[in-house]
Design brief:
The chain is α+β, with helices and mostly antiparallel strands and 329 residues long.
């Protein structure tokens, strides 16, 4: 066994169990895939966690340089080779956060409602696992047995959204929009909706950082609104009329004469049976674009027929109600 100094306050003692195949330099942004066991050290050595048995029973994936809650793991795996298996005995001062990391990993993939852990709850009820509660109340040294399975550099895998810079996220927006358009063309509406949703989410995340009157915010909003209209169209096809109305309202707040927004809101109002609102939007469209008059007239005639059908249906329902009342009397 030999010591490797990774902290100014406490040592980590490493014992190589299997040397592995090759060492790959692990820089910030790299992904390290590894299995781990966590052992509690003391009078008796007790197994706390095994990545092959907890949560999703999958290897841990750590993105280096993104301030993972258990910083010591980053330091450990950066010193290991691919295929290496090693034991690390770590002083308690470096692993105070382990119980909270463990709780998260244990609950991955579970549908159960997560228990909120505020300071008061922590003192009165713990975090829901007796062994982890004991570790919080009685900190001790831990041993990690790590097996490094794979290392991917930042250019070898597709980054997740939270890893991207603002510039990278903004570049992704038109790609997601185009992806959504292609999926929509194939009538894969759920998948298209998801692509549009991601693009909208990126725009909104970037807009939060800007003031509403600034050019940057206005520019991002101009990018967002056409995607929001595409998103609304997916909702319209799926019959989610109130969502369509809400999204079209957002577009029309900034572009009152947007023909697509007016038409889709009108169609949604027909579906939600708000005929007066639908007629108002259709009639406005006729004044904005005379070329749409034949199409709009058909839509207005359709509303007229729907009103007639509803009126007849209501009369029939009322008639049946009177018949039942007379029979009962």
């Amino acid at each position: 066994m030999y010591k490797i100094k990774m902290s100014n306050t406490a040592p980590i003692v490493k014992n190589t169990i299997y040397a592995g195949q090759k060492y790959v330099p692990i820089a910030d942004g790299s992904k390290v895939h590894f299995h781990f066991q966590t052992w509690k050290l003391g009078k008796e050595k007790v197994l706390i966690d095994d990545s092959k048995k907890i949560g999703k029973r999958e290897p841990m994936v750590l993105v280096i340089g993104h301030k993972f809650k258990l910083e010591v793991w980053e330091n450990i795996v950066k010193k290991m080779a691919v295929g290496e298996v090693a034991s690390f005995q770590v002083k308690k001062e470096l692993v105070y956060s382990y119980p909270f990391v463990s709780k998260t990993l244990r609950e991955l993939g579970q549908e159960q409602r997560r228990k909120h852990t505020c300071t008061m709850t922590l003192h009165t009820e713990g975090i829901g696992y007796p062994d982890l509660d004991d570790l919080i109340n009685n900190p001790c040294d831990l041993e990690f047995i790590i097996e490094v399975l794979k290392v991917e550099t930042s250019n070898e895998y597709e980054k997740e959204l939270w890893q991207l810079s603002s510039e990278e996220r903004l570049k992704l927006v038109p790609e997601l929009k185009e992806k959504g358009n292609k999926l929509y063309g194939k009538k894969l509406y759920d998948e298209a909706e998801d692509a549009y949703r991601q693009a909208i989410s990126i725009c909104e995340q970037l807009m939060i950082r800007e003031r509403k009157c600034d050019e940057e915010w206005i520019g991002l909003n101009k990018i967002k609104l056409p995607i929001l209209l595409n998103f609304a169209q997916c909702k319209l096809i799926k019959g989610e009329y109130y969502d369509v109305i809400e999204h079209c309202n957002t577009v029309l707040d900034y572009d009152a004469d947007n023909e697509k927004a007016l038409y889709r809101r009108a169609k949604a109002n027909v579906g939600a049976w708000n005929p007066d609102a639908a007629e108002k939007d259709f009639k406005r469209l006729k004044t904005l674009n005379p070329d749409l008059i034949p199409t709009i007239d058909k839509e207005l005639e359709n509303i007229k027929q729907l009103r007639k059908q509803k009126s007849e249906k209501d009369k029939e329902t009322l008639k049946k109600l009177f018949v039942k009342e007379n029979e009962s009397s």
